[in-house]
Design brief:
seven-stranded mixed β-sheet, globular, 5-formyltetrahydrofolate cyclo-ligase, ATP-binding
């Protein structure tokens, strides 16, 4: 049983690589349909990640459409790999998106939004467990960012795959998810 983050990262990166583009779209749409069931639609400020297509991440375009259809304020980030800090910008019709050296699509600039204002965060992950812990890419960007958010900010993982029983090497600064959404349903924690 792979239960530490390093093994889980390898396992889920490999599982993702097996997915075709059509499967990614189908699974991403199924996740978006499940997101509709979450008790989050009274909130205004939603943070979302743009997918690294090379890593076969979940296509968040479907969730973006939901958010804009519901007139939500959508926030995307730019990552600084030296400081491990993320800067958050309002997504508008004028936002220019450019891929950085790691193929992460990012806003070039824009209206900055403080982390404390963000009410809902969709969190990328490679794996998660039944207690709401996640394994990301291991850079710590999201743990740092989520720690800057208000405690009541709703943290929602998005996953193509179902949970592992338990991720063993969880650190105290790892931020726990409130929900994780898979193509088959919502896991509340």
């Amino acid at each position: 049983m792979e239960t530490n983050k390093k093994e889980l990262r390898q396992k889920y990166k490999a599982k993702r690589q097996e997915l075709s583009d059509a499967e990614i779209d189908d699974l991403s749409l199924a996740v978006a349909n499940e997101v509709l069931k979450l008790p989050i639609w009274d909130k205004t400020y939603f943070h979302i990640f743009l997918p690294i297509t090379e890593h076969k991440e979940i296509n968040t375009e479907f969730i973006l459409h939901l958010l804009s259809g519901k007139d939500k304020e959508i926030i995307i980030s730019k990552s600084d790999f030296n400081t491990r800090n993320m800067t958050h910008f309002l997504l508008t019709d004028n936002t220019k998106i450019k891929k950085n050296e790691y193929n992460i699509p990012e806003p070039v600039d824009g209206i900055e939004v403080p982390a404390k204002k963000i009410e809902v965060v969709f969190v990328p992950l490679l794996a998660f467990d039944k207690a709401g812990h996640r394994a990301g890419y291991g850079k710590g960007f999201y743990d740092k960012f989520l720690a800057e958010c208000k405690p009541e900010t709703i943290k929602i993982g998005l996953s193509f795959f179902e949970p592992e029983e338990l991720i063993e090497d969880v650190f105290e600064n790892d931020v726990q998810l409130d929900y994780c959404v898979t193509p088959n349903g919502v896991y509340p924690f």
